[in-house]
Amino acid sequence: MTFWFFKALPCNKIRVFNFVAFFLVFFTLVSCFNPSKSLEIREIFSFSEVKEDFPQGSLFLFDIDETLISSKDILAKSNPCPFWFYFPLYFSCPELLITSKWEETLSLIQLHAKKYLIEPSVISRIKDLKEKGFIFLGLTSLETGSYGVISSFPKLRHTRLLEIGIAFSLDFGNCIFSNLPSYRKNYPELYEGILCTNHCPKGAVLASFFDFFRLKPPHVIFFDDRKSNLVSVGTICKKRKIPCSLYLYKGATRLSKDWNSHLILKQIKFLLREKRWFSDLEVEKM
Hints:
Strand order of the largest sheet: 1-10-9-2-5-8-7-6
Order of helices and strands: HEEEHHEHEHEEEHEHEHH
Shape: globular
Oligomer: single chain
Number of strands: 10
Distance between the termini: 71 Å
Largest sheet: 8 strands, mixed
Strand content: 5-15%
Structural class: alpha/beta
């Protein structure tokens, strides 16, 4: 239905006008209801940039991959492969089309590729925060349960973090959030201070954690390298009237490398043949 003042316009012009008007209204409404618009997200390249004072008992949440730790090997990072790379990959290594072989290969990479602290100084900062009465937990999209040759992803991640000096708060016992959707027959869980979301939205898992332990911290501080995760957590905090500080961490960019298809294909072929991971540097020297 058009307004009376459109009647003077030719029919085709009315349709164009209505079409444009509809999309202007649509995108205006979408922008108004975009949760990220009402959240303050600050981009940082180092944890040392955070100078604010937070109330005692505040909850510090750290994403793990590409926030606390990263790898110097391209394929061992949490960033996904370019879509086009799967064509030469499957052509060169057709055995990877078998699901079990694919999972075994990915798990061997996770098991053997070395991970490094992006900022080694974070160990002393975490220790200082814990001594001052702050809670320090991991919040990662990591799967729970087994995968390929890995019997437990949470256990492996916890062990590797301890080896490089990261120990989360153990104020809360291990638990499984079976009220949330399952993935690969497993549920999100809290394991040794690490909230593993098992691919559920991080905000939903944090909400279940709050409900399970009847917790309402005075402030939530969250570091993640992906904005969508910050929005997910920030939205939950806002609904529960919990003040939060959200930081988009860009420190891992200092370890970023250009994609090298030739090197990676060679690397995967070695892995399939010898069941051993060769780092980028080792492959480059071959």
